Amino acid sequence: MTSSAVLRAALLGTAAGGRSTLGVAGPVLTSSPRWPLRAAALAAVAGELVGDKLPGTPDRTIPPSAAVRLASGAVGGWLLARRAGSGWVLPALAGAAGAAAGTLGGARWRRAAAPRLGALPAALAEDALVLALAAAAVRATPGAPAGRPPVAR
Fold first, then answer.
1. 66: nearest Cα among 95, 110, 99, 22
2. Per-residue pLDDT of the chain (153 residues; tens, 9 = 90+)
3. CA distance 63 to 34
4. CA 31 to CA 38: how far, in whole Å?
5. Does 145 map to a domain?
6. How many of the other CB atoms lie within 10 Å of CB of 41?
7. Of all helices (H) and strands (E), which one includes residue 111?
8. d(Cα 94, Cα 48) in Å, to the nearest integer?
9. Which range of residues forms the domain containing residue 23?
10. Rounded-to-integer distance, Cα 106 and Cα 48, Å
11. In a domain, 47, yes or no
12. Which residues, 6+ apart, have CB-to-CB distance to 133 below 8 Å?
């Protein structure tokens, strides 16, 4: 296992702290050849990006929401480690830790930014950041051929 796998897992976990679907959807969208899985992952991310802006959406820091984000970060870290063919324990822990940081830090940033920027611009800025973090985390695994990452079978 490399430090790169742990860093990628932490980045993906941080993204999952912002948008819970990204922890699992990121690796699925970049490595699964099965179109139904990819379509479901894309629909989940799109649904969360829209749902996050609705006034009735619960706070991400309440126990059920926070637990889902931590689990998503851990599963995402595990999926990245599996794809890279490395050990999974540290990447899963890094994904969960990143999700905790992303959950708390993202909520704090959003509460501070919304009065200054407006609620929607703050949410869209957060979307852009977490999507960029997820994209950076799931880029081709080091040592893998260029193009699509290897698929675990």
1. 99
2. 578 889 999 999 999 999 999 999 999 999 878 899 999 999 999 999 999 999 899 999 999 999 999 999 999 999 999 988 888 999 999 999 999 999 999 999 999 999 999 999 999 999 999 999 999 999 865 544 444 444 444
3. 33
4. 9
5. no
6. 20
7. helix 89-117
8. 23
9. 3-138
10. 15
11. yes
12. 11, 12, 14, 15, 18
